[in-house]
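Record minuted for everyone:
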Amino acid sequence: MTDLYDPGPQSGGRRPAPGRLALVQAFVNTFYELEDRRGEDHFATEGGLAEWLEERGLDPGEVTVADLRRALAVREGLRALLYEHNDNAPDDGALGAMHEAADELPVTMRVDAKGEVHAAPAGPGVPAALGIVLVVVHEAQADGTWNRLKACPGRHCGWAFYDYSVNRTSTWCSMQVCGGREKARAYRRRRRSHDRDRG
């Protein structure tokens, strides 16, 4: 079983998001396998969503098509926010769908033996699990770490990574992969432009 706050694999050897924010990072990164960058969406089916939640110790209950749609709306809305953290235009459609999906998600708060307050699922089911994800987003907004979680703008990427740079200027999930590919594309564009100007 995976710990609830396990961040999952990281691109380019990056350090994962700190603390509980790693859950949000892992949730957003369920849309493909990092190792081969194929479109292997863990949430492609109700069973895939249930398996991912169970692996993290959350009780998905009986996952319905409506639950799956809601999870996808929250995930893609969060990714849209992470793109904004990387200086991209907002996706109003994705954000609107997330706001609608997030209405009335149940969450309960528990105090541990050390007196620390933690969000906990308010019973079984996908809505309660999604509530935990959004509570963690709220915590990150409060402690100032939220804007450092970004989505890579690389073509066919969108991978969520945590920007540890002093000035919050990291753009790519991996300079070796997405950053390098964009540099190569920019170089080819300059060459074509130069060749047209000479011709």
Notes: The mean pLDDT is 88. The chain has one domain: 11-198. The first strand starts at residue 107 and ends at 111. The beta strands are 107-111, 117-121, 149-151, 160-162.
